[in-house]
Amino acid sequence: MRLIPKIAPLALLAFTCFGQSDSDSNQGNTIESDAEGNSSLQQSSLAKPSISQFFPVWRPPAFAAVPRQIQARAEDHTKPRPRMEGSATGYIENAIVGNQIRLRFDAAFGFQDPDRAEFFYAKCGCYRSLNKTDPEYDPNAPGPGAGIAMKLNFQEVHLNVEYAPLPRLSFFADVPERSIEFTSVTSGTLKNASGLGDFEAGFKAALLASPERYLTFEMGAFMPTGHPSLGLSTNHFSVEPLLLYNQKLSDHVTIAGQFGDWHPVGGSAGLPTSSPNGFAGDVLTYGLGASYDFVSGSDNHVTPVLEFVGWSVLSGFATGPGPASGTNIVNAKLGVRFSIHNHNSIYVGFGHALTNAHWYEEILRLEYRYAF
After folding, report:
1. What pLDDT is stored for residue 69 in this prediction?
2. For the chain, which domains are there?
3. Phi-psi category of residue 77: left, alpha or beta, with phi > 0 → left and psi -120 to 50 → alpha
4. Calpha distance 185→125 (Å, rounded)
5. Does the pLDDT of residue 168 top 90, yes or no?
6. Cβ contact 260:243 at 8 Å
7. What's the whole-number mean pLDDT along residues 233-254?
8. Is 55 helix (H, G, I), strand (E, B) or coil?
9. Which residue has the higher pLDDT, 21 or 327?
């Protein structure tokens, strides 16, 4: 009996602990009275400390935003290119980057000095038939021979395909078929010929792109896939970097321009053959054009175009005149483009030389373009 007063407090303490455990496991029970509520508060204050009170669980608040940021950046790269109708020009290169297929036909008349700077075709083969003691004798002259072409007419058909994997970047390829008719020949004879011309491939990158303007860099590379002795090839590689511009001034008026340099890689020996300067030479190309859209806000458009295109030969030679550097050529081109349902267009144009020096005196161009 003497042990009961000593044991009773210990039993009460054990009961209190077990009661606290029941209270923790039934925290969702409804409090019925203030006294019981006060008791539960006291029991809660005696609850065992949780590890989360000292070491809170770390939850990164920005983690959910990361996928959204990545998605936003991906949307920027896949955003459609600024919408602009294809350039109406027929001779100045198209600054607008996009997917398109072009089929073009050219008929040129009165072509003069066709081997000038090896821009149109390779050095005249007539140098092969010169006396071996002549300083201009060149057994490797690859062009048509043995006569000297004073003038010729030619026709070309081009298939050009452009594909844009990114909104501001496209790649293109151009395959030409050429036919030549020699109309004036001296010191011999030359046979008319036709066949594959020099293949071109390259890319376009839009430096500026908006619904009103495009500023584009284009790089083209020409490969000698034609037969030089038939007048179908320059017989050397060449590159042509171009800066292209297209500006929409109003709903009706658009201007376009280009500036670049055609640069030969290799080429034939110069004149005389021992000259350190090659027969092929650099040629600056430039152009400015304007178009007026008679029909605005419709799927069908009729757009007259006026263009001025020029070439400045910086180096190289030509059979007959000798040095070709300093030759400046300017042509005027007048045409009209018919656009149908934003995907199809047809261009018809005529060009005429404005300077005494020229490549061709007159040219007729027909082009069909399908944009997709």
Report:
1. 53
2. 100-371 (2.40.160.40)
3. alpha
4. 13
5. yes
6. yes
7. 96
8. coil
9. 327
